[in-house]
Write a structure and sequence with these properties.
274 residues; alpha/beta; Rossmann fold; five-stranded parallel beta sheet; 12 helices; elongated
Length: 274
């Protein structure tokens, strides 16, 4: 019996005899077609390293693919942080714990691990202006986004205004569902302005949608006892406090403004130098 062997495709035959220049061109085009930008840009440098370290073909391929995966992970992290809508960049590593002894670094470090986000627990940051509430809120939100969680930041008044507009346009259920889907909702400046009954009720609906499912983190300049100035209905106020504190973490950042102290110190230093 005569056995016939199917010849390789013409393209495969051509590739076996590629010159180094042709191979580089083929790799460049293949990376574009397969959307492997890191492999495309780092291939030559990594090939030099692989030859120097005498990597096997398998080892070289692993290094290339791992580099691509690492860069994709970084790009996804950047997109998640951007999608969160933070008004400015704040990192936990930049927080000056020495300037505010009310805040325990160990507590913040534990929160940075995001177990509370994974389990849907709330977080409340309570303290006067300039004590680091927003820095911690944005920093913890950024840490959560970098770990793969969907995060959304908003001011309390902006959220309420959006909910009122959605209700007027018959889009309330859709808007509440959108806020309900994110893993962590960061609400800043809660308590700075009084909310009418309708706005407070709409905010309560968002909190109820997320209760014991997805985390809410808030920053407020007023203690819970003073929230009746923001939520004028006592029963609704009590219900909102309950939603935001049950099973969660409460951090009191104090009353001494770090920003004010920093400004005074800087001013005094400038005066002495004159």
């Amino acid at each position: 019996m005569t056995t016939t062997t199917t010849p390789p495709p013409a393209a495969a035959r051509r590739r076996r005899g590629l010159t180094p220049e042709a191979a580089a061109t083929a790799i460049e085009q293949a990376c574009r077609d397969l959307r492997l930008p890191t492999v495309r840009t780092r291939f030559a440098d990594m090939l030099t390293v692989a030859e120097k370290e005498q990597l096997t073909y398998q080892g070289f391929l692993a290094e290339l693919l791992l580099a691509e995966c690492d860069d994709r992970g970084r790009r996804r992290s950047i997109r998640r942080v951007k999608a969160a809508g933070f008004p400015r960049q704040k990192w936990l590593g930049d927080f000056d714990f020495d300037a505010n002894p009310n805040i325990n670094p160990a507590t913040i470090n534990t929160l940075a691990g995001c177990h509370w986000v994974r389990t849907g627990q709330p977080l409340c940051l309570i303290g006067d202006s300039g004590t680091g509430k927003s820095h911690l809120l944005i920093g913890l939100g950024t840490a959560a986004a970098e770990m793969g969680y969907r995060v959304r930041y908003t001011l309390a008044t902006k959220l309420v205004n959006e909910l009122v507009e959605a209700a007027d346009e018959k889009q309330l259920a859709k808007t509440i569902a959108r806020y309900g889907r994110v893993d962590l909702l960061c609400i800043d400046e809660l308590g700075y302005m009084e909310l009418d009954k309708r706005g407070a009720e709409l905010l309560f609906q968002v909190l109820t949608e997320r209760e014991e499912k997805n985390s809410v983190a808030i920053a407020s300049n007023d203690s819970f006892s003073g929230w009746t100035k923001t939520f004028t209905d006592p029963r609704l106020c009590a219900a909102i406090v309950d939603r935001l504190t049950f099973g969660g973490t409460i951090i009191e950042t104090g009353t001494d403004s770090y920003r004010l102290a920093h400004t005074k110190a800087k001013s005094a230093s400038s005066t002495l130098q004159q």
